[in-house]
Amino acid sequence: MRKVFASATEALAGQLRDDMVIMSGGFGLCGIPEALIEAVELSGARNLTVISNNAGVDGIGLGRLLETRQISKMISSYVGENKLFAEQYLAGDLELEFNPQGTLAERIRAGGAGIAAFYTKTGVGTVIAEGKEVRSFNGEDYVMETGLVADISLVHAFKGDTEGNLVYRKTARNFNPDMATAARMTFAEVEHLVQPGEIDPDHIHTPGIFVSRIVHVPNPVKHIEKRTTREARREEA
Question: Which residues of 160-177 are buried (b: 16+ CB within 10 A; e: fewer)?
């Protein structure tokens, strides 16, 4: 089975349609599958439900799909870094299913593990629990949350081989490994593409069995969300 494709557009060709549920890895701008997101934009697919911690920033990452209004619903934990995200939500143009961040991560992990639902104390007694089942265990209340699955997942990896085995780098790992397991098809963009056997099996984060298609994206732009600097200190003579 050929997994490596020449471009993100080619990898996603024939797999995108309106009304899809898409998971997109990353945290802020760290570890986002930017090339794959651009291919979704170029496809013109609309009315998308996107599961992602947030939506990048204005003009970068998922922010581009908000600009084209291809996203109708976000399942996220954070809104504040993207002005357009907040504007569309407050105007009623974008549906938002808000999750505590840990709950979102566990919902994705559960979906990938075949777990239909789980109970957590997070959100009990708040608007997060409204309309959800609440049960008592050992005298403590827990709210039921359902696992999340998607039609496709888009992930970014530091290294991958042609069989689809993936390695993520440091904090760019974030939501990517869990999302890679929780979709019908997973598409991975990798910075370094190697041959089978070149990755130590003990270093693999996502086994190739979860990955359907791969695109090699060398030297991607590493955006900095908030650049913080200080004035250079003048050394005393």
Answer: bbbbbbbbbeeebbbbbb
The whole-model pTM stands at: 0.93
The predicted-structure confidence for 163-209, as pLDDT tens digits, reads as follows 999 999 999 999 999 999 999 999 999 999 999 999 999 999 999 99
Distance of alpha carbon 45 from alpha carbon 213, whole angstroms: 19
The helix, strand and coil proportions of the chain, stated in percent and rounded to the nearest 5, come to 25, 30, 45
CA–CA separation, 197 and 161 (whole Å): 8
Say how far apart CA 156 and CA 99 lie, in whole Å: 23
Where along the chain do its domains lie? 4-115+148-216
User: Within 10 A of 210 (CB to CB), how many other CB atoms are there?
Assistant: 21
Identify the three-state secondary structure at position 120. strand
Q: For residue range 111-145, what is the model confidence (pLDDT) as tens digits?
A: 999 999 999 999 999 999 999 999 999 999 999 99
CA distances from 125 to 70, 75, 106, 141, 193 (A): 34, 21, 20, 9, 48
Could you tell me the fold of the domain covering 4-115+148-216?
Glutaconate Coenzyme A-transferase (3.40.1080)
Is residue 237 scored above 70 in pLDDT? no
Cα separation, 57 vs 60, whole angstroms: 5
